[in-house]
Design goal:
This protein is α+β, with helices and mostly antiparallel strands. The chain has 4 domains: about 60 residues, no CATH class; about 70 residues, GMP Synthetase, Chain A, domain 3 (2-Layer Sandwich); about 50 residues, no CATH class; about 45 residues. It contains 7 helices and 12 strands. A 5-stranded antiparallel β-sheet has the order 2-1-4-3-5. The protein has a 4-stranded antiparallel β-sheet with strand order 9-10-11-12, with no helix packed on it. Strands 6-7-8 form a 3-stranded mixed β-sheet, sandwiched between helices. Helix 1 packs across helix 2. The chain is elongated. The two termini are about 50 Å apart.
Length: about 260
């Protein structure tokens, strides 16, 4: 049996094996992730999950969270906030051209990872020494892109919903301006860009459907025969699977592609 676990209120759901534990929705559990031990909240119903659909073997839930686990989780959050503040001060003191985004402290308290963005490469070796001397744990400093920064910080998209990259989008797919053109969206950057400043990921969600429908429509400029007479396609209405046809009589008509005849 499989259960969904969420680590942030508006974060992604991750799947884990339940094993022989009796769990209920909303219960706090301790799990092992790719980044180490963590405490999450049961966010989904229990269900059988076909093994052939798994991208990789699922980790089991280790145990229900104990008072000690919850105390450790609170300590971790406080430590991350403290480390963030101290790291910002050291970045400023060394005048490094970087923006600190977040800090992740391992559950066992032995390792801290600092994430930052920058326009170019940054020599942060002295910063690592400063942080190691300050916290006496293993230190990693990683540069990330603006999309990863937005995923870490979260927020609301122009649709009013939590960001896709924060809630369900596991991997970033390439997004091009052509996708916006095909969907006849305004090419104003402020209209088609996400809060990360890059083209919105959702432009790719329906793009394949648009391409598939478009292949079944006569192209713009193509001569067609409609129930109202002969004409030339002036515009494609992809979602309606229709076209606007300029008739030989000088008028225009909207016609379903299924009712048009054309060659090619």
């Amino acid at each position: 049996m499989v259960v969904m676990v969420r680590f942030k209120e508006e974060g992604m759901n991750y799947y884990f094996h339940v094993r022989d534990l009796e769990l209920s929705l909303g219960e706090l559990v301790v799990v092992e992730t790719e980044n180490g031990i963590g405490v999450g909240r049961v966010a989904g119903e229990f269900r059988a999950f076909p093994e052939h659909k798994l991208r990789k073997p699922l980790q089991p839930i280790l145990r229900k969270a104990t008072p000690e686990d919850l105390a450790q989780a609170r300590w971790i959050r406080e430590k991350e906030q403290e480390a963030f503040q101290i790291c910002q001060e050291k970045i400023k003191a060394r005048d490094l051209p970087m923006k600190l985004v977040g800090v992740k402290w391992s559950f066992d308290g032995a390792k801290a990872v600092f994430y930052f963005t920058a326009e170019g490469k940054v020599d942060f070796r002295e910063l690592v020494k400063d942080l190691a001397h300050e916290f006496r744990v293993r230190i990693e400093v990683r540069q990330i892109g603006v999309r990863d920064e937005t995923r870490m910080l979260g927020g609301l998209g122009c649709c009013g919903r939590p960001l896709c990259c924060q809630t369900f989008l596991r991997e970033f797919e390439p997004v091009s301006i052509r996708m916006a053109k095909e969907q006849k969206l305004p090419l104003n950057p402020s209209k088609i860009s996400g809060i990360c400043g890059r083209l919105m990921c959702c432009l790719a969600f329906e793009y394949k459907m648009y391409e598939e429908i478009k292949r079944g429509l006569p192209k713009v400029g193509c001569p067609v025969k409609t129930p109202q007479g002969l004409g030339v396609v002036r515009e494609q209405l992809i979602l309606e699977e229709s076209v606007i046809v300029a008739l030989e009589t000088g008028s225009e008509v909207k016609c379903l592609a299924s009712r048009c005849q054309w060659k090619g």
